[in-house]
Write a structure and sequence with these properties.
The complex is a heterotrimer of chains A (294), B (594) and C (175). By secondary structure, chain B is α/β, with parallel strands linked by helices. Chain B has 18 helices and 21 strands. Chain B has helices at residues 26-39, 89-92, 132-138, 145-156, 163-172, 177-195, 219-230, 244-253, 267-279, 290-305, 333-338, 354-371, 381-385, 458-478, 501-513, 531-540, 554-561, 582-592; strands at 15-21, 43-50, 58-66, 76-82, 96-106, 128-130, 214-218, 234-237, 260-263, 284-288, 310-316, 347-349, 374-380, 387-391, 442-444, 482-485, 492-497, 518-523, 525-527, 543-548, 570-573. The two termini of chain B are 46 Å apart. In chain C, helix 1 runs antiparallel to helix 2. Chain C has one domain (11-156): Ferritin. The two termini of chain C are 30 Å apart. Classes of the chains: A alpha/beta (294), B alpha/beta (594), C mainly alpha (175). Chains in contact: A-B, A-C. The structure holds thiamine diphosphate (TPP) and iron/sulfur cluster.
Chain lengths: 294, 594, 175
């Protein structure tokens, strides 16, 4: 528990906002869930006291992916679906940095869905925040891989005939070492999850239910509010089977950490093999050249 | 009984062809011979060809040997050894036998010899039988036919006997002294077999030269060496023929120097990983071939837009689609120069032989870092896979392009605004890397302002486009981007690029010798194209030909798209997946300009 | 949708109560500030101006409480977990709306003030410490004043239902 007197807490919060906010104002629609994700992120970074220049936010393309532009850190709003590989390259080349990848549901599960299992396998030490609004926001309200069956959208005028993906279930199946669900609007709760995810040694995924007020309407907040439940405190976060049950609960959206299991990170493994290779003298230009002596 | 023969009309160097099925070890035989030739101070070029089987299919090796450096691809074969007629089929069309060529077979296989074997002049050729399997069995080493073959060829070519056992020792020594001794015995038995044959006349003497040490390596090896020299720190790639050797080399060498190789889940991921690493300040490389480059196109445009350095080596193969993975073509040119939405300049450079695969790679890193741009190196299967002898000093100072630079970092101070994409006289704006205090910036593929923030300003769109384009102008001011070879009084110019350069140079030399002085202009920089210089050159010649290995004439069309007046030019191009040969080019010139 | 807060009001001391109050006010101030940004970026100036006003008000309350806390307890370590406080006086993120009218903005503030009133009123049922009772009563009554102030602003508006102008707005822009 924070024992800092509130005067100081307030000052720190104000300073942190100052330090982490870029001078760009968000273009999101007022009421968009992504605003609160940004606020939660500032709160989390402030709590962790990571200097902004040690942080890189890497996103794809979408409304949600505009987020890095609003933080005074290093940031890349990359191309649609590719935040994971860009962040993977960055984090593996620069393990000293705090790297956070972020994406929308279309980014993360449709066009970029193929990268997700591989990030899980590699267990790259980065957080991955998916702002799931069940719709394509930026391109004007088409269905996304998480749009509920039967919904009417710009591309499902007579109802969506496909089943939605279950992002938490996929993450668990892929072997992601930290899996959590948060809701936009609950800034404090979300910030708490973010703090944990950013500190997690390995790949940490948070599915963030972040309403799109423009294409899904304000009601999306109500739908989430009605279905959201905190994950019971007695849930054993290393119990994969239980985590699957919470992820696939037909009624409730469980908020909190679903699964957490320490595994060797990519960096840990790479460091070991780098030492092995160095001991063998690999990488030396002259020795490599000598191999081609006829 | 010895019988004198004359083969190869005016061939400057002998070409040997060995073929068998995978288990026959002809590739190993070729490799041993190449090393022996190299150690004799001679030059050699080795091209391997395989059937479609994953393993154990038919394989063939072409080995050109010469006292002089070799430029063009092998043409007619003077000596051919076929260990398995059963699997000869796929090579029947590829193999062009010089008039008077000697063809050998294992006597046990003689019954399967094609009845209608003919040389390039249409004369029937009768294969001569050698008791290879019989001798191998006698040596109680039934699988040593290929070593017998090495001895046989070494004997025919009168290579110094001492060279091979040393190579054998090095290659097989670790399997035990006994194995090595048996193989050395096999080698000598092979030589004795050759003694019983007449040394074919018409071949230049291959007396060993007092030799400097030599290297034997492929274009992919040279590119890997170049990357290490340039200071590559990060590699991400996806396996693809014929580029995978570079990836393997990086997997071996990067971790030892604190870097790493990541096998990505696909090429989109690979290029994106490069961009991440490069954003982090590291020198990043990938290697791929046409299908992979196709997948990288979107990210390449992004790299151009956010001005991130990275190097992509495209070892081209026959296209379109999966095309011919083990054959060569220069048909990714169009994709490399045009493959982008929007106006997204990138640098495209091409090596012309095994040695310049090193130079092009080092240069690619140099240009990428200096101009903050993606650079594509267009190699191809022919360059990537063929092995050549090179002097041991080939990559030393004064012999190769070796300039290595580090990224230009800005002078940032905490609290002071930093403009990542500052618009000024210099289109290259210093780039901060994460971790630098005062250097934080955000950017995206969206048109951005000087700070990196998205904008819808049409004026900025124009000015940022200019910034990207002006970098290309600076590159042209810095390097010629082409090479001219040939007599000063030439009235004919042969324009070419990449791996076709070798055959073009040979063809020009022969054309010159015929009394038609011909020069060759080899374009190294395909984007930005040194258009002005090319225009001046083209204007000086009475005849101009453009030679390339594409079905549709992509290079010619690229030159014309850049405004070169080549309406009258002789267009030499075709599909097929084998390199253009010297005689093909020569023949076309003879026909066009009698 | 916020994760529930469980505060043991019976155990609350005056210092805790002040600390709670400060953080509640700061949360509200910050949230209104965000609304200002959101609406300014969308040229919804009237509502933005009202929220800007709220930023000032909440800031004043925060400072007033901070002053009392400092004079009574100095920099004594706090026992209040800031993360327990969610949406007590701050309007919910979801309340911001594009093309928001002044009336809608006032409604949002009114709702938040009612929520804050209920928080203190409910808390008072459990509070034992007399000084805390005094403070919370004060804060509760202040919320009533705020409600009245907002209500007065609403009353100043032309009567009748708000015309729904949303249908007249342009389609959102696709990217
Ligand atoms: C290769 C490519 N295809 C399509 C697009 C157009 N596009 C931009 S964002 C987007 C989907 C956005 O949805 P989501 O990822 O869920 O993010 P949101 O906007 O909802 O936050 C699409 C299809 C693109 N930018 N690039
Ligand atoms: S369209 Fe939807 S997701 Fe995009 S900014 Fe607006 S509310 Fe947010």
């Amino acid at each position: 528990m924070d024992v800092t007197p509130p005067a100081e807490v307030v000052e720190r919060r104000i300073n942190a906002r100052q330090a982490y906010r870029s001078d760009l104002k968000p273009v999101w629609c007022p009421g968009c869930g992504d605003y609160s994700v940004l606020t939660a992120l500032f709160a989390a970074l402030a709590e962790l006291q990571i200097p902004p220049h040690q942080i890189a936010l890497i996103s794809g393309i979408g409304c949600s992916s505009r987020l890095p532009g609003y933080a005074a850190t290093y940031g890349l709003n990359t191309i649609h679906g590719r935040p994971i590989p860009v962040a993977t390259g960055l984090k593996s080349a620069r393990p000293d940095l705090t790297v956070i990848a972020m994406a929308g549901d279309g980014d993360a599960l449709s066009i970029g869905g193929g990268h997700f299992p591989h990030a899980a396998r590699r267990n790259i030490g980065m957080a991955y925040f998916v702002m799931d609004n069940n719709v394509y926001g930026l391109t004007k309200g088409q269905t996304s891989p998480t749009t509920p069956t039967g919904e009417q959208t710009a591309t499902s005028l007579y109802g969506w005939p496909e089943d939605p993906a279950n992002p938490l279930g996929l993450a668990l199946a892929y072997g992601v070492s930290f899996v959590a669900q948060g809701v936009a609007g609950d800034v404090k709760g979300l910030a708490r999850l973010m703090v944990e995810a950013i500190q997690w040694p390995g790949f940490a995924f948070i599915e963030i239910l972040s309403p799109c007020v423009t294409w899904r309407g304000k009601e999306q907040y109500d739908v989430i509010r009605d279905r959201a439940r905190p994950i019971p405190p007695e849930h054993d976060v290393t119990d994969l089977a239980a985590a699957f049950r919470y992820a696939h609960d037909p009624e409730h959206l469980y908020v909190g950490v679903h699964y957490r299991q320490r595994k060797p990170t990519f960096q840990e493994r790479v460091t070991a093999l780098q030492q092995k290779a160095a001991a063998k003298g690999a990488g030396n230009f002259d020795r490599y050249l000598a191999k081609f002596r006829a | 009984m010895k019988q004198a023969v004359t083969i190869g009309q005016g061939a400057s160097c002998p070409c040997v062809f060995l073929m068998g099925s995978g288990g026959d070890g002809v590739v190993t035989a070729g490799d041993l011979l190449a090393r022996a030739v190299a150690n004799a101070g001679l030059h050699c070029q080795m091209v391997k060809s395989f059937g479609p089987q994953i393993r154990g299919g038919e394989s063939g090796v072409w080995l050109q040997i010469s006292p002089q450096p070799i430029q063009g691809p092998a043409e007619q074969v003077q000596i051919a050894v076929v260990l398995s007629w059963r699997s000869f089929g796929p090579f029947a069309r590829q193999l062009s036998l010089a008039p008077g060529a000697l063809v050998f077979q294992d006597e046990q296989d003689a019954a399967l010899a094609p009845p209608d074997l003919r040389d390039a002049g249409g004369q029937p050729v009768t294969p001569r039988s050698l008791p290879l399997q019989k001798l191998a069995d006698e040596l109680e080493a039934p699988r040593s036919r290929n070593i017998l073959l090495v001895g046989f060829i070494a004997g025919l070519l009168q290579l110094p006997a001492a060279l091979i056992p040393e190579v054998l020792q090095r290659k097989f020594g670790k399997r035990g002294a006994e194995v090595a001794a048996t193989l050395i015995k096999a080698f000598h038995r092979g030589r004795e077999l050759a003694d019983a044959q007449a040394r074919p006349a018409g071949l230049p003497a291959l007396a060993p030269v007092e030799a400097e040490a030599r290297l034997l390596l492929s274009g992919n090896d040279a590119a890997s060496l170049g990357a290490l020299h340039a200071g590559v720190e990060f590699f991400a790639g996806y396996p693809i023929t014929p580029a995978s050797e570079i990836m393997t080399a990086m997997a071996e060498h990067l971790p030892g120097r604190g870097g790493m190789m990541i096998q990505a889940e696909d090429e989109i991921s690979a290029i994106c990983m490069l961009l991440g690493a490069s954003f982090g300040g590291k020198k990043a490389l990938t290697s791929t071939s046409g299908p992979g480059l196709s997948l990288m196109v979107e990210a390449l445009g992004f790299a151009t837009q956010i001005e991130l350095p990275c190097v992509i080596i495209d070892v081209q193969r026959g296209g379109p689609s999966t095309g011919m993975p083990t054959k060569t073509e220069q048909s990714d040119l169009q994709l490399a120069v045009y493959g982008a939405h929007g106006d997204a300049p990138r640098v495209v450079i091409a090596p012309e032989n095994v040695r310049t695969c090193f130079d092009a790679t080092v240069k690619a890193f140099y240009l990428a870092e200096k101009y903050q741009t993606p650079v594509i190196v267009l190699s191809d299967q022919q360059l990537g896979h063929r092995e050549e002898t090179l002097p041991a000093t080939a990559f030393d100072e004064g012999h190769a392009f070796r300039t290595v630079i580090a990224r230009r970092l800005p002078d940032v101070k905490p609290g002071e605004p930093y403009k990542r994409f500052a618009l000024g006289d210099d289109p290259v704006s210093p780039m901060a890397i994460p971790g630098m205090e005062g250097g934080t910036y955000r950017t995206s593929g969206i048109i951005h302002d000087e700070a990196g923030n998205p904008t819808v300003s049409t004026d900025l769109h124009r000015r940022m486009s200019e910034k990207l384009q002006r970098k290309m102008t600076l590159i042209l001011a810095e390097m010629p981007g082409y090479r001219l070879e040939g007599p000063a009084h030439a009235d004919t110019l042969l324009l070419t690029w990449g791996s076709t350069a070798g055959a073009a140079c040979d063809a020009a030399a022969r054309r010159t010798a015929e009394g038609r002085p011909t020069a060759v202009l080899i374009v190294e920089l395909l984007y930005p194209l040194p258009t002005e210089a090319l225009r001046e050159h083209v204007a000086r010649y009475r005849h101009v030909a453009v030679a390339e290995l594409t079905f549709s004439g992509q290079f010619l069309r690229w030159l014309r798209a850049n405004g070169l007046a080549l309406e009258q030019a002789l267009a030499i191009h075709r599909g097929g997946g084998d390199p253009l040969t010297t005689s093909e080019i020569l023949q076309r010139m003879r026909e066009a300009w009698t | 949708m916020s994760t529930s807060h469980t505060i043991d009001f019976a155990a609350l001391t005056l210092q805790d109560a002040l600390d709670l109050g400060i953080l509640i006010e700061e949360d509200a101030r910050e949230r209104y500030g965000e609304f200002v940004d959101q609406l300014e970026a969308h040229y919804t100036e009237e509502a933005a101006a009202f929220f800007r006003n709220m930023v000032r008000n909440e800031g004043k309350h925060r400072d007033w409480l901070t002053k009392r806390r400092t004079s009574l307890f100095g920099a004594a370590p706090s026992r209040v977990d800031a993360s327990m406080l969610v949406e007590i006086e701050a309007p919910e993120f979801s309340e911001a709306d594009i093309f928001m009218t002044l009336r809608q903005a006032l409604d949002v503030a009114l709702k938040a003030e009612v929520r804050a009133y209920r928080f203190f009123a409910d808390a008072l049922k459990h509070v034992r410490d007399p000084q805390v009772r005094e403070l919370f009563t004060e804060l509760r009554d202040e919320e009533v004043e705020h409600q009245q102030m907002v209500q007065r602003e609403i009353d100043k508006l032309p009567p009748g239902p708000e015309p729904d102008t949303r249908g007249q707005a342009d389609e959102p822009v696709g990217h």
